[in-house]
Amino acid sequence: MTMVLKRNLEYWQISLKNPEAAVDEYYIFDEVIIEDKELIRKVERLRELIISYCVMLEKDKKAAGEILNEIYEIIISNDKIQYTEFIAFWKALDMSFSVFKKLPNHKIILAELLETYCLRRRQLYEKLGYSNVTVQALYDSGVSRKKGTAGIIKVLDLASKILGLKENEHLRTIKEVENCNRGYFLPDKEDKKLFESFRERFNIAYQFGKNHQGKKPDIVLKIGDHFFIIEAKHIKESGGAQDKQIVETIEFIKYSENSEFIHYLSFVDGVYFNNFIWTPPENSSKVNRQKEDIEKYLKENPNNFFVNTAGLKEIFEDLSKNKI
User: Which candidate among 118, 208, 228, 285 keeps its CA 20 to 30 Å from the CA of 179?
Assistant: First the structure.
């Protein structure tokens, strides 16, 4: 089926005319956890136990060991317990909650962490006073880790609103991929094996993955006979990991397949995208070099796309006009 779409550079120009919003509803994570009475009960009990442990450590190590057991049980009972002063302090010791859970000999490690906390923080925190607002603030500061999944949710939600894509059109087998007119799967999440079957069935080289340590795309979206292999990135600023992410999304459209039905699509939202719009063209900056690469790869690979939110919506609007 011939798909009626604009030239890829037109969607790029639409993206450049429509800056990303500073506040995007898809990246607002404002769950209030301090109203969870059971969680707060555990937080307050944990504080009491830690104070007792620090005192008993100097007087009665056997009693301290019994307290340690209860502290351990509270810590492993609820992942949100990590948003407390004690566990936040672990990062100053080059330890994280996620790493702690994977380590053997949890209680031995916990005893070491507690002893250091007693020495370096307990008296200071007691002097300043505890507040459950701290729990909420620590939770709020950590929610940015959800942004990767939120980007996938955003793409699928826009596809749902514009194309009518349904949640039950999540493809699970290669036969479903072959036979459906519309659907999607998630190669970087639960559908890794399906992506390999998809590559084999449709003779897709996916050179990007070979050159990037086997990295899988976020979404494969099928519309009619066409497949859109999508990499979604939410980028707010430059520097470090963010620079690596923007380079990856640009290189994603560097590759193409020997088929007009296979499209590589880089979707970048977040305020970093606005640098492509607002940086003066005469500025010999990294941003303009990135912009030049994007336009170069789009010209070399006319089946590929690089868009922000406005550009993606326009692609979906055009796809919705095709009879599928």
Answer: 208
Q: Specify whether 16 is located in the same domain as 106.
A: no
Which of 76, 2, 90, 20 has the alpha carbon at shortest distance from 319?
Answer: 2
Residues 6+ apart with CB under 8 A from 80: 33, 36, 39, 139
Residue 205 lies in a domain: yes
Q: Say yes or no: 167 and 307 in one domain.
A: yes
Instruction: Name 234's bridge partners.
Output: 269
Q: Would residue 139 count as lying in a domain?
A: no
The number of domains in the chain is 2
Determine the distance from the C-alpha atom of residue 7 to the mean position of all C-alpha atoms in its chain, rounded to a whole number.
29
> Long-range contacts: 42-49, Cβ < 8 Å, 24+?
42/74, 42/77, 42/78, 42/81, 43/81, 43/84, 43/132, 43/135, 44/132, 45/74, 46/71, 46/74, 46/75, 46/81, 46/84, 46/86, 47/84, 47/85, 47/86, 47/130, 49/74
Residue-range definition of the domain harbouring residue 102: 37-131
**Do 150 and 299 share a domain, yes or no?**
yes
From 105, 131, 157, give the residue that closes a domain.
131
- Residues with Cβ within 8 Å of residue 142, at least 6 apart in sequence: 83
Residue 136 lies in a domain: no
Same domain, 122 and 168: no
The span from the CA of 213 to the CA of 216, in Å, is 9
pTM over 0.85: no
Find residue 264's DSSP bridge partners: 229
Q: What is the pLDDT of residues 199-253, one digit of tens each?
A: 999 999 999 999 999 999 999 999 999 999 999 999 988 777 778 899 999 999 9
What are 96-147's pLDDT values in tens digits? 999 999 998 888 999 999 999 999 999 999 999 999 999 999 988 877 665 6
